[in-house]
Amino acid sequence: MKKTIIANIIIAALLPFTGLLLLMAVYMLPTGKMVVNVSNSMSLIESEFENELAIDGYKATMTGSFTDCLMLEHAIYNENHSKLNQSMNMYRAESCPDDGEWWPGLSLRDYINGVEQPREVEYSRYWHGYLVVLKPMLMLFSLNSIRLFNLVFQLALFSMILIELSKKGYSRVAISLAAASAFMFFGVSYNSLSLSICLYLMLLGLLIQVYLDEKITKINGYFAFFLIMGAATSYFDFLTYPIVTFGFPVCVYLCMHKEKIKERLIKFAVFGGLWGLGYIYMWASKWIFSDILAGNSTIKDALFTVGVRTGSDTVSFIKVIEKNLSVYLNRPYLILLVLVLVLAIIWIIKDIKFVKKINILNSIPLMLMVIAPFVWWMVTQNHSGQHWVFTCRIFSLSVFALLCVCSQLITDKEGRKDAL
Questions:
Q1: Sorting pLDDT into bands at 50, 70 and 90, what band is 413?
Q2: 3-class secondary-structure state, position 109
Q3: Please, which of 196, 208, 278, 327 could form a disulfide with 60 given CB 3.0 to 4.6 Å?
Q4: pLDDT tier at 414 (50, 70, 90 boundaries)?
C-alpha cells in the first residue's frame, strides 16, 4: 500500500505538466488545413443555428452546436500569441452583432471568412484538453467526417465492452449497460463534440476495466485508475455530465469483484475520493498555472463561477429535478422505464433463492449510486437547472446502478456470476 500511495502521488504530480505539454504540442500544428476543413463544414454548422436537435421535439437530442463552435474556433485560432500563452489563456475572436446577440457560430464564420472582429476574449478556467484530439483530427477531417467517425468509433467501443462482459460471465451487467445507454441518448451523441467527451472517457474506462481487470487488480491499479479518470474528465471536458466517468466504472468494479461489505464500502469511498481529488486537483492546477505563467486572475474568476454554479438562488432543487427528468416524460421513455422495471423484477423472481442478507449488504454501494445523480443535481443546482438538456444524461447512472443492484442480489457469496 505504501508503494501504491507513492505511485499515486507521482502520477498526480505529473498529470498537470503532461496536460500542459500536450496542449503546447498541438498548438505547434499548422492550422491551414484545419481552417479549410472547418470551412467545408460551415453549411452544416449554419443549418444548426436555428435548430440543433437531432430529433425534433426531443430537446435532449441537441447537437451541442453552441459549445461545439467554441471548440472549433479554439482549434483553428492562430494569432500572435506564444504557444504557452495561448495554451493558458485560450484566446478566440468574438463578433458583436448590432442587436447584441452573441452566438459562437457567427464568430466562427467571421473568423474563417477573415472578417475583422471587434474583440479578442479568453476562456482560461478550463483546460480545453479536447484540443489534443480535435486539432489533429481537423487536419484530416471536416466536422461532417468527424461525426461519422464518432458514430463508428462509439458503436465499436460499446460493442467491445458488451461482448467482453458477456464472455466473462457478466451478461446481466452488459444488458444493464445497454438499457442505461438509452437514457444517455447514446444514439445521437455522435452528433456533438462537446457531449461526446464524457461518453468517450466512460467507454474507454470501461474498456480498460473489462479487458485488463485482473492485471489492474494484481498491481493495486484501481486507485490510480480512478485518480486518472477524474483528472482526465476535468482536462478534456467542459462541465457537462462528468459523474458518469466515475459512476459507470465503479458499478462495473463492484459487480466484478466479490469482496466483503466492509472492504466494498471502503474501496467505494476511496475510489470516489480519488476520482474527486483528480477532478478538482487537475482543474485547480489549470487555474494556478494560468495565474503564475500568464499573469491572469483565473483563480478568482473560477472560484466565483464555482460559487454561482453551485448556488440555489435561481431555481429550487425540486425544479431542477423536474427539468432533468422532464426529457423522459414521453411515451418512448416511459415504455423503456416500464421495461427496465419489469426486467429487474424478472431477474429477482427468477433467482429469488439466491437473494440473501449478505447480497443485500453487498449491494449498498450500488444503491448509493442509484441516488448519485440526484446528489449531483443538488450540488450543482444552478448549472443543472440551466443546462438540464444535457445534465439529464446522468440519470442513466441511476438506471444502470438499479439493474446492477438486481444483478448483485442474485449473486451468491461463493461468487456465482450473473450469466443468464
A1: very low
A2: helix
A3: 327
A4: very low
